[in-house]
What does this fold into?
Amino acid sequence: MNRLQNAIGARLAHFLQKQRSDYFAFSTISPDRLRATLRPGDVLLVEGNSRISSAIKYLTRSTWSHSAMYMGGPDEVLIEADLEQGVRAVQLATYCALNLRICRPVGLRDSDLNTVLDFMRASIGRRYDLKNVIDLARYLLPQPPVPHHWRRRMIALGSGDPTRAICSTLIAEAFGKVGYPILPEITLDQSRTERREILHIRHYSLYTPRDFDLSPYFQIIKPTIEAGFDYKTIRWRARGHPPPHTPVS
It folds into this structure.
């Protein structure tokens, strides 16, 4: 049965990885500026332009369908979990033409950062959970009959085999190794003397790409702002009348 599921999953993965022709990138980040801004340990969120992206976006109610971790180095390597090839290292140029968001863990100690990066490197070669591909494929329908409060659990319907991974759960597992929070569950502890919040770590299999965007512990980094943005330097293409005080070429 497992062999049959994997065979079906592999065929589906190949189909779902096909690129859509109607994708449009709004990002204005140049590749050089993106390279200059990224730091090792940054989580790069990708909107994605493949068929599988539609299912992930629907399930997570987010524009982000993929995530990868920037490792740095002279080769500008990202580590990601690919649908067909499993956990692998890819060049930053792979995603420069897509809409992106940089999420940076705040206050992560150097020793813990090294632990996170080492875990990601050691994960290369792990396989994508192809049973999850079958689960995700169910939700490619225009209006899949899945209640909102069930959608997050749909991401965790795979085998649970720790030797396999999906993109965001792999990264969440890496940060979990050092106890770094992403979106923990919060409960209130009421007592006579104090009122405090207690954080509970979610299982890494329940994390999705958008959780790094929503996390209060990750800083959103925008390369155009980091480089020093001055709106007065923008050269607009005139359409009748240029915006006020804007230089025109």
